[in-house]
């Protein structure tokens, strides 16, 4: 309603329509800018990992760097990196950073029946809406208290899976979306490729 109680005329409607279009454009531009910034952060993280590997850094240090950057960029409270134990159907958590990290470090996880193991076996990301109550992670000591949405992403180059990065956000946070998963998968793939190249040097 207009001030003074007058009716809206065609000119008023035209102004409102123009303002609505301008607001829509501004929102789209803000979203595109945010997506561009996010892509840039992933690219910088990839470059940092490649430099670290090529300079001869130990694998544990590189895994720690991968976990740190993935946690920072996705807003996760916890990042845990697991690698396969040769000759077994298990993975060991080599690196854990963030909330309850101490409860994760050194854990041996079965490939079968676990969130991380499923990502490793399937070679594809696996999500959980509530990791603290997910039956795929309830065995062993309590280690996800206060955490909610989670995703396990394989560190994969071609058919070779070198490990899995598990990311978990605080309880009540938004789930990991498909839009977030795409750059995360690409990041994990680049990390796997860089690790492979470093081993060949």
Overview of the molecule:
- With 201 residues, this protein is α+β, with helices and mostly antiparallel strands.
- The protein has one domain (32-200): Beta-Lactamase.
- The chain contains 5 helices and 6 strands.
- The protein has helices at residues 10-54, 59-74, 101-104, 115-122, 178-200; strands at 78-84, 90-98, 108-110, 126-128, 147-157, 160-170.
- The chain has a 6-stranded antiparallel sheet with strand order 3-2-1-6-5-4, sandwiched between helices.
- A hairpin with a 5-residue loop joins strand 1 and strand 2.
- Helix 2 (59-74) runs antiparallel to helix 5.
- The model has no long low-confidence stretch (mean pLDDT 84).
Can you summarize the main beta sheet? 6 strands, antiparallel
- Provide the gyration radius in Å: 22 Å
**Which residues sit in consecutive blocks of at least 5 with pLDDT less than 50?**
none
Helix content percent band = 40-55%
Total DSSP helices = 5
What general outline do the C-alpha atoms trace? elongated
Could you name the CATH topology? Beta-Lactamase
Give the averaged pLDDT, no decimals: 84
Q: How many domains comprise the coordinates?
A: 1
**Helix/strand/pairing category:** alpha+beta
Amount of beta strand: 15-25%
CATH H-level superfamily? GAF domain
């Amino acid at each position: 309603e207009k001030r003074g109680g007058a009716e809206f005329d065609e000119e008023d409607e035209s102004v409102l329509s123009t303002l609505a279009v301008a607001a829509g454009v501004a929102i789209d531009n803000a979203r595109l800018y945010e997506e561009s910034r996010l892509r840039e952060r992933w690219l910088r993280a990839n470059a940092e990992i490649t430099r670290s590997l090529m300079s001869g850094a130990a694998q544990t240090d590189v895994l720690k760097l991968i976990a740190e950057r993935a946690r920072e960029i996705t807003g996760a409270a916890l990042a845990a990196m697991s690698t396969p134990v040769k000759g077994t159907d298990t993975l060991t958590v080599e690196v854990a950073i963030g909330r309850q990290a101490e409860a994760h470090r050194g854990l041996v996880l079965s490939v079968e029946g676990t969130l991380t193991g499923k990502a490793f076996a399937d070679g594809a990301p696996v999500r959980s809406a509530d990791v603290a109550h997910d039956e795929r992670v309830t065995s062993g000591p309590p280690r996800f208290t206060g955490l909610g949405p989670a995703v396990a992403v394989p560190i994969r180059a071609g058919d070779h899976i070198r490990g899995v990065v598990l990311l978990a956000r605080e309880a009540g946070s938004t789930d990991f979306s498909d839009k977030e998963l795409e750059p995360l998968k690409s990041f994990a793939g680049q990390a796997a490729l860089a690790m492979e190249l470093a081993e060949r040097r």
